[in-house]
Amino acid sequence: MAKIVIVGGVAGGASCAARLRRQDETAEITILEKGPYVSFANCGLPYYIGNVIQQEDELLIADTALFEERFRIDARVLHEVTGIDRANKTVTVHDLKSGETYDEPYDQLVLSPGAIPIRPPFPGIDIPGIFTIRSVPDSNQVKSWIEMHHVDRAVVIGGGFIGLEMAENLVHRDIKVNLIERDQQIMPVLDREMTAPVVEAIEKNGIGVLLGDSVTSFEQTDVDIKVHTEAGRSIRADMVILAIGVTPDSALARDAGLELSGSGHIVVNARLQTSDPDIYAVGDAIEVTHAITGQPCVLPLAGPANRQGRIAADVISGRERSFRGVQGTAVCGLFDVTLAATGLSEKQLEGSEIDYSAIYAHPNDHVGYYPGATPISMKLLFDNSNGRVLGAQAVGKKGAERRIDVIAMAIQNGATVYDLEEAELCYAPQFGAAKDPVNILGMIGSNIMRGDLRITPWEEIGKAGAIILDVRSYSEIAVSPIVNQGEVKHIPLNELRDRLEELNRDTPIHVSCAVGARANNAVRLLNHRGFDASLLPGGTLTLACLNYCSDDGGRTTRATPARFDPLVALHEAVSPLSGLPLWLLQEIKADGILKEYSLGQSESVTLKASAISDILVLGNGEIDVIEFDQVSRHLSSTESKRRPVKLSSHESKTFYARTPSTLYRIDQEYLDFFGSWFAMVENLAQERPDLEAILGDMRRPSVFMNLPLSNVQEALKLTTVIEARAGDEIITQGDTPDNFYIIIDGAADVHEVGLLSDDGAKLVNQMVSGDHFGEDAFVIEGTRSATVTLTRDSTLLALDGEDFKRLISQPLDDHVDHNTAKIQVDQGLKKLLDVRYEEEWYEERIPGATLIPLPELRTRMSELDKDQDYIVYCHAGKRSAVADLILKNNGFNSAWMLEGIREWPYAVEKGL
User: Fold this and answer.
1) What's this model's pTM, rounded to 2 decimal places?
2) Active site residue 545
């Protein structure tokens, strides 16, 4: 009769014991477990802490009594094995309850010691209230601490499975959480771009996510713990959870002379035998083989541990079994999002010799016509040589894990994208679609393998002179345009056949839509018509994910759908910004004109104006504004209208984040100009309708920022539209100036010959649509300082030189100073009209003024009296000058006030 001793229970050891008994009724089986439970669900520990699982007993899968009564297995808890005598085939056992030490003989020994949570030697690491989670007693300590210390704030360190699950469950207990992850992404089983919707989901639930930062030390204060980080953050918490990872508990094997890997894991063969053939090892402590690459790896998950225990039992019982290895199939649920993965990630493949393709799709979990359909963001990796499936990832509210399970079995059986294309899966309207998401991935991959479809990775967008063709609708473009340094062409798919003459057959075309389906149709159409077209996989939704996690903001490409950009909500809620196009906000943010401050929960920033008119607006979250050590205002993104906070240069304000929050800061005068510019363009369009779209799309209208807008309007009426060809030299260095130019649609190179150099003409700049040139010679009354040559066919807006000189001359409109305005209003000769936004009106206003914000002036003109003379004012004068133009064009007698309320020397009213 064989004597088998198993060191450690839980998934590997307990499953091995039960399987042994089913295979051999005569064997003598002993489990030695140093903890208080022989078999418990350690994957359920975060949910036990979060009170999702209410009772400790619900975590216990089997106790010692069950092993004895059902299996006649001697399971001993609180028995720690401290040594292995391989020569005499005994283990030394320490009874933690009685203190007795004894030797236990074995014929075969199974090691299932598991792993130990990493607890780095940070200064302050032993402060009470800093925990790791590995066992039921660990969980009970955390639960007790929460209840005894009335925990309100916690920091979780580590963004893997345990860290994220712990963060979610602490939120379930109404605890405010900050999560710190050293890497630039959470959840390392996913590729970085696939984590974007996961981060969005956890941030929406109030968790502050701090990526790319690591803890340096802990500090005990009188009331809490301070967590100090490498980036200089200091985060206060009542409790800290360490979820940094685990290290193998392999000391017993090491001391027994068994072979270990470089990482300290126990080396086993396919039969799960260690370097001693009578000693087996399973679970988190062993090194395994990756089923796809054949390379050594580690995977501390319960599923593989359970299977390893069964296989070791079969081998001990004389069966011919071997462990096939692991492929990394895993799933995690966070709030309303599920993420799942199997096989290799692109991060792993980038270091291999496998030639692979990565494709994306964003199908619904079931047909759209049945209520409740939600998208699943999916990524598939396959071998370009034969179509073999290498890995897949999915994130969605429903159905992600089901699709990954299907693909996991496909990988296990060596399936290809052709097999996914033909997979016969369950379909009913509430469960899927006739083309299941798995089929869709297979169809895309099969099209690529057959040569019917060519893809261009997003990192190659616009390279090699390619144009980007966006085939989405006009409304989609308005919400989330693709902005790229190369050429972006917009032709909706339904118009493409009729507008092919707008495309060049000799130029590569990179095609995109929202998720890839329409772009695929466009690529096929273009290729049939002789164009060189390829697909940007997964559309702008994939691009948004890539940009979300990019270190450089997506290289030169930006896409900003509402789901990832708080600017979208800000644009709708804050009046000073809602009058501007969304693309402009995105551009000035990218240029640093609109400054962004991202704060984690309980973080703060103290600001003082860099100019006299800086304002600050809340993008998302909840913020307390602190002045003179007192909370003066509370800001919340749940408000339908968000009033800006003014900053001044003589006093500072502190912004304390109650929840993860984003603040935006901009110079009020800069904002005034842009608001005035678009109002001026709208007004100008009454006489020159062709200019409205042209000027409204200018990338840099700030060229006119310091000019009187009345002059700008009058000059622009005189502009002409000209068409020019690639290679045309529009201006030549040294020539007398003739016109000022704005590029409406096109591109140009700027070359300059240096006065002190014989090197010839050098490329000093490249211009694209929306840029302007030619004003320098007019201003200094000199000659052209550079040569501008078009690099493709272009449309330009030209302004004659004499008209440009009038543009920069004295104002053409009527204006008054503060003293004149005060006298005329006090004498009843004129009335004041305030054209600022409501938020500014609430801050302060001139007594007796009427408020009509500039964007509403045209629609509310009936509220004004044409027999009354008006003096119009705003913050600094830009908007009031445009309002004056609008009023005059509609028959009113008006003037505008220089310098606005900013420099008003008399009394003002404040507040509501």
Assistant:
1) 0.63
2) no
